[in-house]
């Protein structure tokens, strides 16, 4: 019985030492930030190689003074649409959207993705984001 307690104690000490070292080398997960994530349908719904660039071109054609609410489809190419989410103001003007739409393809996204509405100063999509994603 004493041998089992000693073994359990040794394993507990070793485990806590290993976990302490692991937490030192694995940084905390940052806010999601600019990304190329989207629906699992994104890859099959993109009918051309660079759908994200087409959406940016279409966004650049909208009126600077046009207001888009969160969730409004700003533009679509097939089933991939651009829309705002979670903006503090409830939406944004075309001129503002144009200012950060280009970051999605510049980040390497060819179809779906999101950019925080405060990018590049704020990389937290929880504060609002422009999203290119599949819409069914």
Describe this protein with a few key phrases.
Killer_tox_Kp4/SMK; globular; 4-stranded antiparallel sheet; Killer Toxin P4, Chain A; Killer_tox_Kp4; alpha+beta; single chain; two-stranded antiparallel ribbon; Killer toxin
Describe this structure in words.
It is a single chain. This protein has 136 residues and is an alpha+beta fold. The protein has one domain: Killer Toxin P4, Chain A (2-Layer Sandwich). The chain has five helices and six strands; from the N terminus they run αααββββααββ. The chain has helices spanning 2-25, 42-45, 51-60, 94-101, 103-106, and strands at 67-69, 75-77, 80-85, 91-93, 113-116, 129-134. The strands form two sheets. The protein has a four-stranded antiparallel sheet with strand order 2-3-6-5. The chain has a two-stranded antiparallel ribbon with strand order 1-4. β2 and β3 form a beta hairpin. It is globular and about 35 Å long. It starts with a helix and ends with a strand. The model is unreliable at 6-29 (pLDDT under 50).
Low-pLDDT ranges: 6-29
- Coarse morphology: globular
- Total helical segments: 5
Rounded to an integer in angstroms, the radius of gyration calculated over CA atoms is 22 Å
Spatial ordering of strands, largest sheet:
2-3-6-5
End-to-end gap: 63 Å
Please provide the count of β strands.
6
The CATH topology is Killer Toxin P4, Chain A
SSE order = HHHEEEEHHEE
Helix content: 25-40%
CATH class: Alpha Beta
**Number of domain modules:** 1
Helix and strand content put the structural class at: alpha+beta
- Average pLDDT across residues? 84
The second-level CATH architecture is 2-Layer Sandwich
């Amino acid at each position: 019985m004493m041998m089992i307690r000693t073994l359990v104690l040794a394993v507990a000490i070793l485990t806590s030492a290993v976990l302490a070292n692991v937490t030192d080398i694995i940084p905390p997960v940052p806010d999601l930030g600019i990304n190329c994530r989207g629906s699992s349908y994104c890859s099959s719904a993109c009918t051309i190689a660079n759908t994200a660039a087409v959406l940016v071109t279409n966004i650049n054609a909208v009126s600077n003074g046009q207001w888009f609410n969160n969730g409004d489809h700003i533009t679509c190419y097939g089933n991939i649409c651009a829309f705002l989410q979670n903006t503090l103001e409830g939406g944004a003007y075309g001129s503002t959207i144009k200012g950060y739409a280009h970051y999605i393809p510049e980040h390497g996204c060819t179809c779906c993705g999101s950019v925080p509405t405060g990018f590049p100063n704020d990389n937290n999509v929880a504060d609002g984001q422009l999203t290119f994603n599949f819409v069914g």
